[in-house]
Every structure is written in C-alpha cells, then in structure tokens.
Amino acid sequence: MRYKNDELEKTGRAIAQKGYGLTLGIHSRLDSFVERVRARVPAGNIYINRSIIGAVVGVQPFGGEGLSGTGPKAGGPYALTRYSVERAVSVNIAAKGGDPALLNL
Questions:
Q1: DSSP letter string over 27-69?
Q2: What average pLDDT does range 48-67 have in this prediction?
C-alpha cells in the first residue's frame, strides 16, 4: 500500500479498520519506523525485511487476527486458539546492514 510519509498514522488506521490481520511485511532499516507501523497495524505474523510468503503448514503458527482467524491455513484450522495471543516477528538483520558475527560476542 502506498502512502505519503506524513500519512502513516492515517494509513495504519485505515488498514486496521479493515478487520483483517493475517500477515504484515515491513521493509525498513529503522527500528523506530518498524515499531511505529507495528503499533498501528495489527497482524498475527510480521515479517521485517524479508518475503512474507513461505509459512510451513503444520509447523508455524497461523497467528491471524480479526477476520483472518478462520480457515485451513498454516497450522490447521484449530491452530488459532493455540496462538491467539502470540505474535511471530522475523527480522532479516543482514538487510539492515547488520553483521551476524557481532551477535556472537
């Protein structure tokens, strides 16, 4: 979804009001921007700086929110009740210029 920088809050509210919250993809090098978007757009699965496609059926939680909470999705049709509060967040630190070797210090 395209938006103007000064309309992030307005756009986030419009998305949230749709009632669906299955998957959200955010591409940014700024953690503060990621947190601003996450605070405004509810989603069960959030992918940061990576593809939003590729959940493994029966292995990863469904994690949908709102009207996205039904159907035979990844994890099966009853997985939602097991993960109703959980959020999955995946961050590609290399896309932000991170050095994985530094994480092992």
A1: --S-HHHHHHHHHHS--SEEEESS-S----TTTS-----BTTS
A2: 71
32 pLDDT above the threshold of 90: yes
Start-to-end CA distance of the chain, whole Å, equals 39
Average pLDDT value for residue range 10-19: 91
Rounded CA gap, 11 and 4, in Å? 9
Question: Pick from 10, 40, 8, 9: which is nearest to 24 by CA?
Answer: 40
> Which residue type is seen at 75?
G
Amino acid at position 11, single letter? T
Query: What's the mean pLDDT in 84-98?
Result: 74
The token duo for 23 is 């998957």
